[in-house]
Specification:
152 residues; 5 helices; 5 strands
């Protein structure tokens, strides 16, 4: 990694709202430019460890199901308790919390880890975000751009 920050979009764009992580990561990359690296991931823990290796700030963005309204944005930073499951319980065998636990055990966490979760609505097979979740993309980009700028 050559940048001090990485945005990791987690998900599966073939499961509707589970593609929010990729959509937001791509949009952040377009707005912020070369100040960050952008990685698309399926969320497999060892790939996450590789994606955030050696960076100062890693922002992971993924769909979540926490009981909030579709499109609601959640932020977890550093030691706050991470969500245990993503929106697509069938497409991520292990979750982000597992990757963090593995990273902690192997001393392979980034200096700062921020997780941005967007409440999903529709995760059935198919492409395209639901309207509520698509409407949250720019808000999530704003949140992430501010977080990255304040931590670099």
């Amino acid at each position: 990694m050559t940048s001090r920050a990485v945005i990791i979009g987690v998900g599966n764009p073939w499961r509707r709202d589970d593609g929010i992580g990729w959509a937001v990561a791509e949009a952040v990359g377009q707005r912020v430019g070369p100040a960050v690296d952008v990685v698309e991931s399926d969320g497999e823990p060892t790939r996450l460890l590789d994606a955030w290796a050696g960076v100062d700030v890693a922002v992971v963005v993924d769909a979540v199901r926490g009981g909030g309204a579709p499109g609601k944005i959640h932020v977890w930073a550093d030691d706050s308790e991470l969500p245990s499951t993503s929106a697509s319980t069938g497409s991520h065998a292990l979750g982000l919390a597992d990757a963090v636990a593995l990273g902690r055990a192997l001393d392979r966490l980034p200096k700062r880890l921020i997780v941005v979760g967007v409440e999903a609505h529709e995760t059935t097979p198919g492409r395209g975000l639901s309207s509520a979740v698509a409407g949250a993309v720019e808000d999530a980009v704003d949140v992430i751009a501010r977080l990255v700028a304040s931590r670099l």
